Amino acid sequence: MMTIRSLISALVLAALCGCSQSDRLQQVLADGELTVVSRNSPTTYYLDKDGAAGFEHDLAQLLAEELGVNLRMETAYSLDGIFRRLQREEADVAAAGLTLTDDRSQRFSHSIAYATMVPRVVYRTGNRRPDGLDDLGELQLVVLAGSSHEQTLKVMAEEDRPELRWEAVQGADTMELLERVDNGSADLAVIDSSEFRMQQSLYPMLEVAFDLGPEREMVWYLPPGRKYHSLRRRMDGFLTQLQGDGRLDRLREQYFGHTTVLSRIGSHTFARNIRNKLPAYRDLIRQVADEYQLDWHLLAAVSYQESHWEPEATSPTGVRGMMMLTQLTAKELGVRDRLDPLQSLRGGARYLKDLRRRLPRDIHEPDRTWMALAAYNIGLAHLEDARVLTERMGGDPHLWSDVMAHLPLLQKREHYRTTRYGYARGGEAMHFVQNIRHYYSILQWQDIPANQPGQPLNPDDYLPLALREKRFLAL
């Protein structure tokens, strides 16, 4: 005979089961797992040596933490594949840098906007630059199949531009489009502004010809149906909170805040040096990085910024070697020969690690590393002055984005006269760090194996073009 306690337990269990069938949020909470489908790209989701990374991944991870569940990231290898998984309810959310369109919003539920982008037509410098759609003529235009850009072109062709022609490329990787324009197999490509900004340094000969349309909103999509309404409302509240407390801006700055630093010539030089110079020193840089427990990509980025991987580099001010150490600093670090690559790398690695250790404990990563790099350039004393100015002017001295904005003030008399250590080339330190962040990001992405993130291909979502085995070899 059923006791009162067991009856109550059975009723509660039945209520939970019934609720889970009609409310996906309750099912996610009960299962302890949120499934998110994304694309494999440097702007969305990828695997590096430390595990999963990417702007969309980290944003989804924050949502999972907000819900108190684990995050399960899955990869689709085409945009159509992403939406097929939503339609089949194989994922709870699609977080893949997707723009809001009328067609998609009629078929799927979606979040509030968390970012914006501009669709841009990209061409290779040296070729004829079209000023607009009227100038396309016989130029070959490529676009990702199933993308919002393809939908835009279709609408334009139906309404008033029947002469428009383009090739829809299967897959979800914009690098395929950039590669085609770069190698001349296509004349133009339509790319999201954020994607192009992130990857332009890999293709320094590519530039924006014109914008295809106005700024558009980026959203997360959910499967259709009422049972996803609670999850969408919770998600909207979460995104609103992130926008309000500044975490979304900090995450955006972490991934995209360094992408507009280099000139096209600088990017082209870096790409050439990755191919021609880095192989000779990669093992040595790895060795020293392991000795000092640093990421070798970071040490490589610093040494490139300092000397372009030239062991005998010398500046007019007397700093020398691959890590451009002053004579006094080299002596303090026990470096007897600044022109010896091993000694120079060891000295620079030790100096950087010591600077990072000496920063206040309440400065956390990755801001801690960026500030240590700034101190590498102008010294801890001037960095502290910049942090004081930052706090004095209402910024957060623990955040690199805030300190970076105030570093150039160290060059203005009205500000540096109020600091303890006076004038410093703060603008130079700012660019020093941002350049290194850019090099670091490229080196990390370049070093990711072609088959990341290692998910088995769904037969419906396979990628027929083998660009992934060519990642960054175009450099």
Question: Overview of this structure, please?
Answer:
There is one protein chain. By secondary structure, the chain is α/β, with parallel strands linked by helices. It has 3 domains: about 15-115 and about 220-255, D-Maltodextrin-Binding Protein, domain 2; about 120-215, D-Maltodextrin-Binding Protein, domain 2; about 265-445, Lysozyme (Orthogonal Bundle). Helix content is about 50%, strand content about 15%. The chain is built from 20 helices and 13 strands. It has helices spanning about 5-20, 25-30, 55-65, 80-85, 100-105, 150-160, 175-185, 195-200, 230-245, 245-255, 265-275, 280-290, 295-305, 325-335, 340-360, 365-380, 380-390, 400-405, 415, 425-445; strands spanning about 35-40, 45-50, 50-55, 70-75, 95-100, 110, 115, 120-125, 140-145, 165-170, 190, 205-210, 215-220. The strands form 3 sheets. Strands 1, 4, 5, 6, 7 and 13 form a 6-stranded mixed sheet that branches. Strand 9, helix 6 and strand 10 form a beta-alpha-beta unit. It is globular. Residues about 5-20 and about 450-475 have low confidence and may be disordered.
